[in-house]
Amino acid sequence: MTLKKINPTTTNSWEKLNSHFDEIKNKKIVDLIDKRANGNNFNLNWKGFHVDISKNIIDNTTLNLLFELAKECDLKDAITKQFSGNLINETENRAVLHTAVRAKKDCKIEVDSINIVPGLNKTKTRIKDFTNDILSGKLRGSTNKVFTDVVNIGIGGSDLGPVMVVEALKYYSSNLNSHFVSNVDGDHVLEVIKNLNPETTLFIVVSKTFTTQETLSNANTIKNWLIKKLNKSSVSQHFAAVSTNQNAIHDFGINPDYVFPMNDWVGGRFSLWSAVGLSISLSVGYNNFEALLDGANEMDDHFKSSEFDSNIPVILGLLSIWYNNFFKAETEAVIPYTQYLNRLPAYLQQAIMESNGKSVDRSGKPVCYQTGNIIWGDTGTNSQHAFFQLIHQGTKLIPCDFIGFKFPLHKENKQHHKLMSNFFAQTEALMLGKSESLVDKELKNSKMTQKQINFLKPFKVFKGNKPTNTILIDKLTPKNLGALISMYEHKIFVQGIIWNIFSYDQWGVELGKQLASKVLDEINQNKVSKHDRSTTSLLKKYLSD
Ligand code: F6P
């Protein structure tokens, strides 16, 4: 069964939200907080997560109307269909089952009437054994040396998820050094391998399709480098691969014992839980990898079974729709207050923008409303010293997710309170702003003349009323990280359902790929064929001596 096709703007709740928006849009968040004594919960507690949504331009009516919208768009039905393996990725005729990869070992999930869980368990056992054998030195390189380095070769979902998690869980890392090669830029791959010892390095080629230009080019460059440094037969002991395309892997010459399968019902950007996460498992050990999966699975259960008014991904998804479609906010920032999560914004850019960057609805008609948000961000406090100026005093409304941790990882960390004081202070400052009267009072306490005060005053005023969500998590453990990523995955799903779009295809990335291959032929033959005038002149410039 496929997803229902409901245009959200035709629902009663959408109309009510429009009128409600006019009533609430200029209200102050601080005043709204004071009036929220009864009604919905603006502080959601779930396991190690405390999610405070109170610093938003919302009241009980807003939340109730958003829940009504979710009901009218039949979000419940969509959730059931996703988790039970219905073909909800209609344009590719596939189920969407990244949740199955992290499901409990004894559950039953069917695709084409076949229980897929035993097969997934088998792959997990293989990942575990391979990880343990590499880390213990049982599996070695072709010259019998223990592996010291592992290089993940992939791009998009075959890179961003693994690299983000490996960075995030660096504290838990094993004795292997991890590296990532993604860009087709030859300088990238050559820079990464330049100081590596071929005898002690394992390469994992990760590509769902095994046809991606970037990945295959990098894999071939590295294979040639390895053969030159060692010999042809060493390839079978230094290369592993993860893909759905077993034939192509075979043609590349990878040892079948080092090949890990993927399934087409796991989308690339949702695949870090599968064998695509092999580099994660090698980097932090299998037990930590499994804990990551468990955390994600616990969030899946929360998403599946909680009522909308206590459901974290549902509420975050609906709030994002509130700002995107009613306040017309174009972007959202994600600001993690831990250096370990420095790759989270980049990872979320693919997950969110490749999923919901669509302008045709599920009936194939152009949408008449805004969809996919633009996601950006960086770690706090670095971003405070970079782009926060614009969030505080710019002309654009930018809702932000602040992600912080109650406890640091290093015992000897004496700076955590400093970090977290910034975390709390920024959301407070964004909400409260600084009034003209306060600025005036402060300036009067200085030795400035009235003329100077009058000049400076407007520049020092902060309008405030900038919405934020505060996601306060106990500690950055593999389990909590799994739950956090899963939370965002479900937020994406919620938004895609309400916007009536297909979140699990990515046709928009194809055109550029096709044109690039045509242009490459022309460059190789030094012959520019028919293009628009701009492209023709650029190509000629590139090919000129
Ligand atoms: O170009 C987009 C994309 O198809 C992503 O969706 C995917 O994660 C990435 O390319 C890599 O694809 P593959 O894993 O097949 O190499």
| Percent of residues in beta strands | 5-15%
Ions, cofactors and other bound molecules:
6-O-phosphono-beta-D-fructofuranose
Biggest β-sheet strands, sense, barrel: 6 strands, mixed
State the secondary-structure class.
alpha/beta
Q: Multimeric state of these chains?
A: single chain
- CA-based gyration radius: 25 Å
Q: Summarize this, please?
A:
The protein is an alpha/beta fold and 545 residues long. Helix content is 47%, strand content 10%. The protein has a six-stranded mixed β-sheet with strand order 1-2-13-12-10-11, sandwiched between helices. Strands 6-5-7-8-9 form a five-stranded parallel β-sheet, with helices on both faces. It has a two-stranded antiparallel sheet with strand order 3-4.
Structure, explained:
By secondary structure, the protein is of the alpha/beta class. The protein folds into 3 domains: 8-72 and 306-432 and 466-505, Rossmann fold; 99-290, Rossmann fold (3-Layer(aba) Sandwich); 514-543, no CATH class. Helix content is 47%, strand content 10%. It has 22 helices and 13 strands. A 6-stranded mixed β-sheet has the order 1-2-13-12-10-11, with helices on both faces. Strands 6-5-7-8-9 form a 5-stranded parallel β-sheet, sandwiched between helices. The chain has a two-stranded antiparallel sheet with strand order 3-4. The chain is globular. The model has no long low-confidence stretch (mean pLDDT 96). The structure holds 6-O-phosphono-beta-D-fructofuranose. The site of 6-O-phosphono-beta-D-fructofuranose has 14 residues, from loops.
